[in-house]
Amino acid sequence: MASIFDTINLHNGVKMPAFGLGVYKVEAGEQIEETILTALDIGYRLIDTASFYQNEEGVGQAIRNSEIPREELFITTKVWNSEQGYDNTLKAFDDSMEKLGLDYLDLYLVHWPVKGKYLETWRALEELYRKGRVRAIGVSNFKIHHLKDLLAHASEKPVINQIELHPLLSQVELREFCQQNDIKVEAWSPLSRGRFFDEPVLGKIAEQYGKTPAQIILRWHLQNQIIPIPKSVTPSRLKENADIFDFQLSQKELEKINGLNKDQRFGGDPDHIDF
């Protein structure tokens, strides 16, 4: 990956940016609109929201206020847990599209694998995909056993699995399963909100390249074929996060960062969804 404009090919032929912006907990209204417009000016083209974030209207408004052609943008949203099931998902999609003000969506995800519901939810996503209302469909927070169950019943295979992923939770087995099944991996909370920026391993590598620990972590993601979607509302941080295309980590450095893994979750466990 040599540019913020680089893309990866999803298994259905759709091209998706290899790097993007997550907008979880970005406030609706002025904050979300200004954040996205700043990100678009820097070169971000992938914007990841969700109905649960309650800022889809602001995402749509920022898109309309920007001068970037719609076809150059890649917009993702997700169906929330309480909205799952076949009919509910179709309604949730319509609600999201009305809030976004878009004619089509690039990627629609099942936000969490709600037991007893996610297969019917997936059936609704397949219907939306067949009708051309969304260019690609995928899942979020699915473990291997969820994916196996889905693949055993699905007509369409998910293009992506968006999961909590960072050096403290590297999810190697899940990533390998996804790779074997041609499912791309996307990382939410790729920086784990800065919880381990003081790791000496990261500091030493960062000093060598004249970069920050955050930039080293994001580069680690890219070189592991992971799509990171770091969140920030600070213009300088948005720019810093995107300034990761002018260097490359060595295999030895990648392995040192791999060694930080502690299988440590900071978000919810997909096997225990009580939200």
From TrEMBL:
Residues 30-261 form the NADP-dependent oxidoreductase domain. The active site is at residue 53. One of its GO terms (molecular function) is oxidoreductase activity, acting on the CH-OH group of donors, NAD or NADP as acceptor. The record marks 78 as: Lowers pKa of active site Tyr. Keywords: NADP, Oxidoreductase. The keyword Amino-acid biosynthesis does not apply. It comes from the Bacteria. InterPro entries: AKR, Aldo/ket_reductase_CS, NAD(P)_OxRdtase_dom_sf, NADP_OxRdtase_dom. Substrate binds at residue 111. Belongs to the aldo/keto reductase family. This is Aldo/keto reductase. It comes from Mesobacillus boroniphilus. The lineage of its organism: Bacteria, Bacillati, Bacillota, Bacilli, Bacillales.
